[in-house]
Structures are given as structure tokens and as C-alpha cells.
Design goal:
7-stranded parallel beta sheet; 16 helices; binds coproporphyrinogen III
Length: about 350
């Protein structure tokens, strides 16, 4: 079906658009009362993720409520470790938890991978197909995956962490096992993203949420080459790479064969343009906490940021929107961009 609003896709491909497109990372979720109402009726987060018609429903909620220019499929990055063999639980108010973790090369060798593992995610592909149908071409649909390093970090730590010192220790003490695991993750992610595109995703985004905790040398050895392999393998749709906190390798990220470079709020527009050049399409990067401030400030900060990048931008926050953000602040941000 032909897209009625293809601003986001045109901008991602580097075309000039009437105004910059806008969407928010984590827009499908707890900021919306509709989401909280539906979620409250279910046994938990995973029921929502694993029930395709419900996942489709919450994917479309922000399109109706906020009028953003793209939808992102409701799911989680942790479905990949799960189908490779590490089941996860989403603990209320705490976050993800893995009963089993990876400790050695033997553990890595036990894991499923590639097409075999990706085939287990039929519920995600079905959610994409339903969403695509129900969107009726209103806006493009984004698919996503965690980056190999970010997924490895959960598989070693078993949960979130302030320092990710266990995961970093694994890189320093068992580099061979780390590379073997990153390799298996990469092969799985490539098939997974291709399947998602096949099921209706118009663009895919790679989240390297914990990129910023690595040293530059570690990033270049354990994250960048694997993201590069994924970007090079995906030629069916545009790819966005969002490596949070990885400003210290921004020039290298700029060299990746991807279409869009996602930026977090620590990155000044001038710094990004110096490292990436004027023509690279960027996505970001307003501090999500600006949305707690008065409307006048939200408008000013949003316009300043857009001016700072000077074009070739998909407007977004510098990370996911926080659950307690006032909905009116979110709407003010979206409407400011749409009025340009
Ligand atoms: O962006 C969207 O709206 C689409 C859905 C989406 C979710 N998770 C839903 C979710 C996406 C793109 C993700 C990606 C994700 N998941 C990342 C990368 C993006 C980032 O923020 O850096 C990461 C690191 C995860 C892992 C994860 N999932 C954590 C750490 C948590 C707990 C913390 C939290 O935000 O609650 C989750 C749970 C999660 N994933 C929720 C949602 C809506 C909250 C669950 C709930 O409804 O209670």
C-alpha cells in the first residue's frame, strides 16, 4: 500500500523534505494512558509482546494520539537472547532479569543462532504484518534490534547494571568467547532484521544502548565491526544506527554503511556536523528531560536543536521518552516540529 505520509522515509534516504519528520524512541509505551489501561489487564509485559494483535494495537496508539511521522513496532530487544537460549523475565518496576547467564565458551557453544533462532520469532513478524495492515499506509513502520554488544551485555550481566563491569570484564578476560558470542548474535540479528523487513518494516534501527560504557578501543574491537556487518548485510531497507554515549567514535560511526546516525543528547549539533559532515542524515537528539519544562522552553529548545543541525535531520529525543513525562509536553514537542 502506498504511504500517505512518507516524510520519515524520504528524510532517511537523504531527500529534502517540507519539514523534518518527528517520532520518539519509546513512544509505544507507558507515556500513553491507552497503553497503561491495556497493560493493566494483562499478566505482564511479555504477554503484550507475544500477542501480535495487542502489540499492533499499542504500536498504533502513538500515531492516533500524538500524530508522529513513524510507528515503531512494540517489542523488546531481549527477544533475541531468548530465542538463542536465554529466557528473560520482565520484573515489574525493576526491568529485565535472566535466570541463566553466559559465563564461558561452553555456554556460548550451546546457544542456537541464525535462521533457526530467528524463526522462533514468528509472533514478532505477525505483529508487523497486522500493524502494517491496520496502519493503512498512514506512516512508515520501524523495525529494530539491539546491537550485538548491547545484547551480549545483558546475556553476561543477567540484568541492567550501572557499570556493566561483568560484561566488560568478559571482554578483557575471555575475548575469544566474547567474539564467538558477538558472531552468533550478529548472524541471528541479520536474519531477524531481514525477516522483519519481509513482514513489513520500512526501516530498521539498531540500538547500541550501552555503547557509551566501552573504552574507544573496546568499542572498535567489540561493537563497531559487528554493527558494520549488519549494516552491510541489510540492503532491503534503510538502516539507522543509534549508539548511545558513543560520541568518542562518532567519526567511525559516520563511516558505517548505514542511512541514518542516531545521536544522544550529550552530542552538540556542531560537534556532530564536524564529525559527520553536513549531508549525513542524523536522528535526535533533544534531552528527554526538556519535556518536563514549560511549553515555551520545549518550543525554544526544539527549534534551537533543529537549527543547530541545519537540515538532514529526523527529529527525536536523545534517548527513549521517560514514562512519567507529561503527555502535553510530548505533544508540544511533536507539534513544534510539525508547525515548521
Ligand atoms: O520504542 C518503542 O516504543 C517500541 C518498543 C520498545 C520497547 N523496548 C518496549 C518496552 C523498544 C524499541 C525497546 C528497546 C529496548 N529494550 C532497549 C533499547 C532502547 C533503549 O531504551 O536504550 C533496551 C535497552 C531494552 C531493554 C529493556 N526493556 C529494559 C532495560 C526495560 C526495563 C526498563 C523500562 O524501560 O521499563 C524494558 C522494558 C520495556 N520495553 C518496557 C517497554 C514499553 C516497559 C515495560 C512495561 O510496560 O512495564
Amino acid at each position: 500500500m502506498e504511504l500517505q505520509n512518507d516524510l520519515f522515509l524520504r528524510a532517511a534516504k537523504g531527500e529534502t523534505t517540507e519539514r523534518p519528520p518527528v517520532w520518539l524512541m519509546r513512544q509505544a509505551g507507558r507515556i500513553l494512558p491507552q497503553y497503561r489501561a491495556l497493560r493493566g489487564k494483562l499478566s505482564g509485559f511479555k504477554e503484550l509482546v507475544e500477542t501480535p494483535h495487542l502489540a499492533a494495537e499499542v504500536t498504533i496508539q502513538p500515531i492516533d494520539e500524538l500524530g508522529v511521522d513513524a510507528a515503531i513496532i512494540f517489542s523488546d530487544i531481549l527477544v533475541i537472547p531468548e530465542v538463542m537460549g536465554l529466557e528473560y523475565q520482565m520484573v515489574e518496576k525493576k526491568g529485565p532479569w535472566f535466570p541463566e547467564t553466559i559465563k564461558s565458551m561452553e555456554d556460548v557453544q550451546q546457544l542456537r543462532m541464525g535462521a533457526e533462532a530467528a524463526a522462533e520469532l514468528e509472533y514478532v513478524y505477525e505483529a508487523l504484518r497486522i500493524t502494517k495492515k491496520e496502519l493503512k499506509g498512514r506512516v512508515p513502520l520501524i523495525g529494530f534490534s539491539g546491537a550485538p554488544w548491547t545484547l551480549l551485555s545483558y546475556m553476561i550481566e543477567g540484568s541492567g547494571s550501572k557499570t556493566f563491569s561483568k560484561a566488560k570484564k568478559f571482554l578483557y578476560t575471555q575475548p575469544k568467547a566474547a567474539h564467538a558470542l558477538l558472531d552468533k548474535l550478529t548472524e541471528t540479528i541479520i536474519v531477524y532484521l531481514k525477516n522483519k523487513i519481509n513482514a513489513g518494516a520500512d526501516l530498521v534501527q539498531i540500538f547500541d544502548s550501552w555503547g557509551g560504557i566501552l573504552s574507544p578501543e573496546q568499542y572498535e574491537e567489540f561493537s563497531l565491526p559487528y554493527i558494520k556487518r549488519i549494516c552491510a548485510a541489510i540492503d532491503e531497507a534503510p538502516v539507522t544506527v543509534f549508539a548511545k554515549g558513543a560520541w568518542f567514535v562518532l567519526d567511525k560511526i559516520g563511516d558505517l554503511p548505514c542511512d541514518v546516525v542516531g545521536l544522544d543528547w550529550n552530542t552538540r549539533p556542531e560537534f556532530a556536523r564536524e564529525k559527520l559532515g553536513a549531508n549525513r542524515v542524523v536522528q535526535g537528539n533533544l534531552d528527554p528531560c526538556v519535556l518536563y519544562s514549560p511549553f515555551e522552553n520545549i518550543k525554544t529548545k526544539t527549534k534551537e536543536m533543529i537549527k543547530g543541525f541545519g537540515g538532514n535531520q529526523i527529529v527525536n529525543l536523545g534517548h527513549g521518552v521517560y514514562p512519567d513525562t507529561p503527555l502535553d509536553g510530548v505533544k508540544c514537542f511533536v507539534d513544534t516540529v510539525k508547525s515548521l
